[in-house]
Structure formats: structure tokens, C-alpha cells
Specification:
single chain; 281 residues; Serine Threonine Protein Phosphatase 5, Tetratricopeptide repeat; 16 helices; elongated
Length: 281
């Protein structure tokens, strides 16, 4: 992780001592976002004491914000710390310019921060970072390099659904299921018609043994993409686990129409044949 941020162990310990980050042997993906923001503030010559005051002030002034460094877009002009939300700014410590916000906007500041549309230049740069992350993954680079690229993409564009999905997949592969859930849900918020985001969220629920929510997400993915063979495959498995044999047969048949020749098709045929013997279909 330190390679992604360029932060020494000594500096991390000093941040812990200053109360800017909690002591930890390992950091979550959300912690990494906060560390990146903290690193940028320090690079802008903002004193740790000033950062601590800003964090405490934002937690007090903005309802529902518990971890400002990871939940808000925080920047510095080299003298003060500012929060950016939907193109508006608030000085973090004093609350100056707070009158520019409607009261209802303050209550929903986190949602606005995520859903606000980035400038075209930022969105283009975010896409470049996303493509870089894909290339790094495809070439077998260390996972933290792709992780850093995707985090940069969502820093520039919080609505970068592809980067959010890939961050979720990195977390899922590491069996950090709660973190994966957060990223997939954010991807769905950014693009509710993204079949892969729904499918992958279904996989998280499935892994946690939550079959009904898993089924719902697979069905949403299938509704958005009727030829989504993998959604049929997983719906068939969920139906079998719920002893809904007729529904499982329906999805195995649908899967085989879409994918009749892969190795997974052989597995589908075996499952279908077992169910046929049970149901006499």
C-alpha cells in the first residue's frame, strides 16, 4: 500500500500519533482513499493540527459524515482546507461559505458528492486511469498498482461505475465482502442499468448465504441484459439451493441456449439431467 501512496512507515506512524488515522496493521480500501487525501493535504504543507481540526469540524457540521477524508472531496489551496460538493466550497474549520448550501443539501452531502457530475476534463482523465487499471490487471502487474489506478479514477470521477465495479471485484477476490458490497452499490448508484454491477453484487450476497437478495440482483442483471448467460447459470444454482427444481430447470435450459459448448455448459447439462430425474421433466 505504501508504494501506491509513496508514504513511509515513519510518516504513517506520525499520522497515527497525531490522531489523523487509527492504529492498524492493515488498511481497508476505504482507508486507502482517506490516506490518499491525507497525503495530498500534507504535501500541500497543511499542518497535522490543522487537518485534525478540519476533520473534527466537518464531523460536527455535516450530518452523517463520520470519516470526512474518505467520504468527502477535500482539497487545499496551501493555506486552508476546503470541502467541495457539487461545485460549491466550504472552509472546513470555520464553516465559512456555509450559507451557499441549502439545509437539505447538507443532510445529503455525501450523496451529492458521489452523484455530482465531474468536469469533462476530469471525466476524461478518470477514464484514462480506468483504462490504465485494466491494462495493469491484464498484464499481471501487482494488484496494488491496478488498485491505485482505479482509486485515482473515482477520485476524479466519483461516478466512474467501471472503476467502482473493479474495486469491488478486487475486494471480493480478497474475501472482503463488506467492502465489495459498498463498491458495487456505489456503482449501481452511479449507473442503475449496469448489469455487471448487479450480477457481482448478487455474487457477494450469494457468498454470504443471502440467497433471496442474490436472486434479486441476478434477476435485475438479466432484466437489463436478457442474454446474460452467467445470470441464468447462477439463478439456476440459487434455485437448486432453495429446492425450487422447476425454476432451476428453466434457467439451466436458458443458459444452454445461450452457451451450448463451453466447459460450463457440460456442468449445466449434468445439473439439468439430475433435476430431470427428480422432476420427471
Amino acid at each position: 500500500m505504501r508504494r501506491v501512496l509513496g508514504v513511509s512507515e515513519k510518516r504513517l506512524k506520525s499520522w497515527e500519533k497525531a490522531g489523523l488515522i487509527p492504529p492498524a496493521d492493515a488498511f481497508s480500501f476505504k482507508d486507502l482513499i482517506a490516506l490518499r487525501a491525507l497525503h495530498q493535504l500534507v504535501e500541500n504543507k497543511i499542518a497535522p493540527k490543522q487537518i485534525r481540526q478540519a476533520i473534527d469540524s466537518l464531523k460536527t457540521k455535516l450530518t452523517g459524515i463520520e470519516k470526512p477524508l474518505s467520504e468527502l472531496r477535500i482539497v487545499s489551496n496551501g493555506k486552508t482546507i476546503e470541502v467541495q460538493v457539487s461545485g460549491q466550497k466550504m472552509e472546513a474549520i470555520s464553516g465559512q461559505l456555509l450559507f451557499d448550501f441549502e439545509a437539505r443539501e447538507l443532510g445529503a452531502v455525501q450523496t451529492l458528492a458521489r452523484r455530482s457530475q465531474p468536469p469533462v476534463v476530469a471525466a476524461d482523465e478518470a477514464e484514462q486511469w480506468f483504462q490504465r487499471g485494466l491494462t495493469l490487471e491484464e498484464t499481471g502487474a501487482p494488484p496494488d498498482q491496478a488498485l491505485g489506478a482505479y482509486l485515482k479514477a473515482i477520485e476524479l470521477n466519483p461516478n466512474a461505475a467501471g472503476a467502482l465495479v473493479n474495486l469491488g471485484t478486487i475486494a471480493f477476490r480478497a474475501h472482503r465482502l463488506q467492502e465489495a458490497t459498498v463498491y458495487y452499490q456505489r456503482a449501481i448508484e452511479a449507473d442503475p442499468r449496469y448489469p455487471l454491477a448487479h450480477f457481482n453484487l448478487g455474487n457477494v450476497f450469494d457468498e454470504m448465504g443471502q440467497l433471496d437478495p442474490a436472486r434479486d440482483q441476478y434477476e435485475l442483471a438479466l432484466r437489463l441484459s436478457p442474454t446474460y448467460a452467467d445470470a441464468h447459470f447462477n439463478l439456476a444454482l440459487v434455485a437448486e439451493r432453495k429446492s425450487d427444481h422447476l425454476r432451476a430447470v428453466k434457467h439451466w435450459k436458458a443458459y444452454l441456449k445461450l452457451d451450448p459448448s463451453s466447459a460450463w455448459a457440460d456442468q449445466a447439462r449434468k445439473q439439468l439431467e439430475q433435476l430431470r430425474r427428480l422432476t420427471l421433466v
